[in-house]
Amino acid sequence: MKKLILILTLLASYSAMAEEGNIEAGKAKAATCAACHGTDGNAAAMPQYPKLAGQHPAYIEKQLKEFKLAMSTGGKQGRNDPVMGGMVAALTDQDMADLAAYFSSLPISDNTSSEESIEVAQQLYRFGDAERGVAACIACHGPRGNGTSLSGFPKISGQNAEYVKLQLEKFRSGDRANDMNAMMRSVAAKLSDEEINALSQYVGGLH
């Protein structure tokens, strides 16, 4: 119980930090982000990258800090990504808070769930698979895919399918390992290629 309270306290501090960011300052600093994430934060031209628009500011800020941590630890800690590592290397904590505040203030673009994804993905998302020990996605990301800022779970509704697929594959292989208590790695390790593809096509249309 004490451990849970500590985790929630730390996550709450992330929210507080992100809320201190300045939207207008973040807008000015976001010019270099547009090449991959789009001028409106929706990465329409490059769907292998995430939409940042409408994402919880605490989550954005946390990811930026972990990209920087990975660069400073040779990939042993944080979230290892050579491209993002280079982009965040010179950012201060205030820069990250400002960027998080800006992108979270933007409206996320609409997305849909493909018809062919529903049969496989809806069952997994809502109920998981108890026989294989696969937790239901809804438990953390919510029925509408909005996640929760306080708990550190990101909004996945509206997200680019290609990006979601890449992240699930990285969690499955262990190439991405910055998930709290290895929760995403535990789930993704049990998913087949078909299930990952279906989920990535399905979650974008949750609303």
Structural class: mainly alpha
CATH homology group of the largest domain: Cytochrome c-like domain
Categorize the overall geometry: globular
Which residues form runs of ≥5 with pLDDT under 50?
Answer: 1-8, 13-18
Subcellular location: Periplasm
GO molecular function: electron transfer activity; heme binding; iron ion binding
Organism: Photobacterium leiognathi subsp. mandapamensis (Photobacterium mandapamensis)
Keywords: Electron transport, Heme, Iron, Metal-binding, Periplasm, Signal, Transport
Account of the 3D structure:
- Keywords: Electron transport, Heme, Iron, Metal-binding, Periplasm, Signal, Transport.
- Residues 1-18 form the signal peptide.
- Heme c 1 binds at residues 33, 36-37, 84.
- It is a single chain.
- The protein has 207 residues and is mainly α.
- Helix content is 54%, strand content 0%.
- It contains eleven helices and no strands.
- α1 (2-19) crosses α4, α2 (23-29) crosses α6 (93-105) and α9 (161-173) runs antiparallel to α11 (193-203).
- The longest helix has 18 residues, at 2-19.
- It is globular, with a radius of gyration of 17 Å.
- Residues 1-8 and 13-18 have low confidence and may be disordered.
